[in-house]
Write a sequence for this structure.
């Protein structure tokens, strides 16, 4: 038997495998990984910005109430500010905002124009009123005479994929469109509205003070993790595809 031969005459074979990168696949992989890593890093920067924004909103909502101004030239600058305002409700022009829930009940938010002493009108969300039977609202407190409202300033709500379109001609509303509401109520409404805070009164409406949500989500950390994971997946795919083809050799 010759040296190096296995019993039975079969040759001993060695499996040789190596890393053999190719130019174009390498270039494409580097570009794609740079893109997804960049997206992940951008999401982290967005997370810092969003966290600061939510902290600012929380500070505004919990800060001392300030008088609601006669004129608002910068609506976004007043968003989520804690304000107080006096006037009387024009209850005949109340609006039902459909698609709302509270404490497991389905119902509406009751929007009513508040007319100030100078005649200027501001839409106020008095709060939630449930449906008792089918489309009948549960009895709720009327607001007659002069009132003082403590609440949170909110910006108009844009429509979206998951929000039905308003039907002003039928007085059916799903989002707060102040220009359209101005036409329906025949009043020049302020460019923002106020979500009234609760005053401890029992029954309905249940004032929320805007605490049902800011409408701002902070999911950027999850997005960043997703993009960094994609970069890792691309790196693994690239390394596996750049392995050399198996070579068999005889010693």
């Amino acid at each position: 038997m010759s040296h190096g031969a296995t019993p039975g005459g079969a040759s001993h074979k060695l499996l040789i495998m190596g890393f053999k990168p190719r130019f174009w696949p390498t270039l494409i992989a580097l570009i794609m990984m740079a893109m997804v890593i960049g997206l992940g890093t951008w999401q982290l920067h967005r997370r810092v910005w969003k966290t600061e924004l939510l902290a600012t909103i929380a500070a505004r909502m919990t800060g001392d109430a300030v008088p609601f101004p006669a004129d608002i030239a910068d609506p976004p600058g007043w968003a989520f500010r804690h304000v107080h305002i006096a006037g009387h409700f024009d209850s005949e022009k109340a609006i039902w905002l459909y698609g709302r829930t509270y404490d497991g009940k389905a119902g509406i938010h009751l929007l009513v124009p508040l007319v100030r002493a100078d005649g200027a009108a501001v839409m106020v969300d008095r709060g939630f009123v449930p449906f008792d039977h089918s489309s009948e609202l549960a009895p709720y407190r009327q607001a007659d005479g002069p009132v003082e409202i403590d609440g949170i300033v909110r910006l108009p709500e844009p429509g979206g994929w998951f929000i039905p379109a308003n039907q002003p001609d039928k007085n059916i509303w799903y989002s707060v469109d102040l220009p359209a509401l101005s036409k329906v109520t025949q009043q020049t409404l302020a460019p923002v509205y106020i979500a009234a805070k609760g005053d401890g009164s029992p029954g309905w409406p249940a004032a929320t003070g805007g605490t049902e949500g800011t409408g701002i989500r902070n999911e950027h950390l999850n997005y960043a993790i997703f993009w960094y994971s994609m970069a890792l997946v691309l790196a693994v795919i690239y390394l596996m595809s750049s392995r050399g083809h198996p070579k068999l050799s005889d010693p």
The chain has two domains: 1-64+214-251, 81-196. The longest strand covers residues 121-133. The helical segments are 23-62, 75-78, 178-185, 220-241.
